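User: Please fill in residues for this 148-position structure.
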């Protein structure tokens, strides 16, 4: 609950930041934060104390708030007005169903296939963020783009 409150309060702040320095910059910072800090933060959560878990979750909340602040504007600005609603809804829901919906299954499978390596979800998260960084290199900056 504490983490979700912090996350909720930070999203508008990072949304404002995306209007000042750009969507891609905040997106890159978020993805790089996940790549660099996922392993240490999961290690901190394995300490199994309230304080350690809270600190790790709060740091994760910062990177997630950055990501959540960027995506609505970036996705909206990526489609022309004629197809904006359709393009946004299909791309968002299709990717969420495929990747978000299967993540627990994939992570469980990876742990099983690795002989019980509980770090596999961390590697999966980090690999997903590396793919995100690569994809983000090819998307145009949209924060100064006029909407149709």
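Assistant: Residues filled in for all 148 positions:
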């Amino acid at each position: 609950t504490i983490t979700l409150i912090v996350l909720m309060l930070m999203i508008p702040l990072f949304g404002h930041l995306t209007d000042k320095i750009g969507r891609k910059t905040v997106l890159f910072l978020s993805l790089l934060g996940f790549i660099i800090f996922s392993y240490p933060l999961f290690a901190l959560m394995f300490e199994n104390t309230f304080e350690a878990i809270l600190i790790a979750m709060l740091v994760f909340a910062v990177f997630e708030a950055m990501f959540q602040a960027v995506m609505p504007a970036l996705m909206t600005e990526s489609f022309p007005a004629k197809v904006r609603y359709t393009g946004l809804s299909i791309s968002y829901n299709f990717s969420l169903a495929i990747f978000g919906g299967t993540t627990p299954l994939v992570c469980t499978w990876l742990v099983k296939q690795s002989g019980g390596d509980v770090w596999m979800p961390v590697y999966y998260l980090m690999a997903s963020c590396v793919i995100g960084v690569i994809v983000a290199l090819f998307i145009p900056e949209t924060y100064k783009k006029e909407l149709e």
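For context: Residues 36 and 126 are 8 Å apart (CA to CA).
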